[in-house]
């Protein structure tokens, strides 16, 4: 089942044409990648899907609903179904780990505090962080741990759709691998549909079910095996990192 359907999207800022007739869809339960060189419009595209940026021309449907036609109340309800980790890992420095994980639950639900704490501890465990990290502050965490806390905070709202912008950026290879393993574990255990913007070759090869590569238009839509077989030089260079940035 298609969860997101983007049709004939055009986006331009002045003379700068960023998206020229972009169409693709994301299926339920898959980990879908949005790839492309720097400035190719990945962030703008994802922000349009999560309704942080306006759609200029074209259509985006989520759960079969045209998001530009929804009334404000229906939009707010729809937004509760997804989490967007913009600048993945940005935590509140003055809150400890468990308070950071609880933030959204406190803001968007009327659940009692003891239940919020229980949910927060469950999500701490889901992302593989031991209980004793609960009272630590962000300054006391490694980069990989911060990303896990940010992920736990998003998962606490039980989203059906998760958007991750560069989930492994700034991490060493070992931490990157463990975040990639976590993403695969989450897919298996929670069946969330995930859209990831990434440049990381390991993530592209091991985590993504399917991906698009954009360069004004969609120049590739498929899985890693299909991409590897492509004769297109840009795609080959992209997958060997000659053109990923
Ligand atoms: N509000 C805006 N006003 C004008 N131009 C914008 C605006 N937002 C984005 N752009 C332009 O749109 C293009 C795409 O930007 P975007 O941030 O989506 O790129 P990206 O693919 O995510 O790049 P990167 O990998 O470097 O993060 C860029 O040329 C950028 O300068």
TrEMBL record:
Q: What is the lineage of its organism?
A: Bacteria, Pseudomonadati, Campylobacterota, Epsilonproteobacteria, Campylobacterales
**Residue ranges of the ABC transporter domain?**
4-240
Q: What is this protein called?
A: Lipid asymmetry ABC transporter MlaABCDEF, ATPase component MlaF
One Pfam family for this entry, by name? ABC_tran
Q: Which GO terms describe its molecular function?
A: ATP binding; ATP hydrolysis activity
What PANTHER family does the annotation carry? PROTEIN TRIGALACTOSYLDIACYLGLYCEROL 3, CHLOROPLASTIC
Which UniProt keywords are present, listed alphabetically? ATP-binding, Nucleotide-binding, Transport
């Amino acid at each position: 089942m298609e969860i997101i359907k983007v049709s004939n999207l055009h986006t331009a800022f002045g003379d700068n044409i960023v998206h020229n007739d972009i169409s693709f869809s994301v299926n339920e339960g898959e980990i879908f990648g949005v790839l492309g060189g720097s400035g190719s419009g990945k962030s703008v595209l994802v922000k349009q899907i999560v309704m942080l940026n306006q759609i200029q021309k074209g259509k985006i449907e989520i759960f079969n609903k045209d998001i530009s036609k929804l009334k404000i109340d229906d939009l707010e309800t729809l937004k509760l179904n997804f989490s967007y980790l913009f600048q993945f890992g940005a935590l509140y420095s003055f809150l400890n780990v468990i308070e950071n994980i609880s933030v959204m639950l406190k803001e968007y639900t009327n659940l009692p505090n003891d239940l919020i704490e229980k949910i927060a501890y469950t999500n701490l465990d889901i992302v593989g962080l031991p209980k004793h990290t609960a009272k630590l502050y962000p300054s006391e965490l490694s980069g990989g741990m911060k990303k896990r806390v940010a992920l736990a905070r998003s998962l606490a709202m039980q989203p059906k759709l998760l958007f991750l912008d560069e989930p492994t950026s700034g991490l060493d290879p070992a931490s990157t691998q463990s975040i990639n393993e976590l993403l695969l574990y989450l897919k298996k255990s929670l069946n969330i549909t995930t859209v990831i913007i990434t440049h990381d070759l390991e993530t592209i090869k091991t985590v993504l079910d399917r991906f698009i590569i954009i360069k004004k238009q969609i120049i590739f839509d498929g899985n890693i095996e299909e991409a590897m077989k492509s004769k297109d030089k840009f795609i080959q260079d992209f997958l060997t990192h000659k053109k990923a940035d």
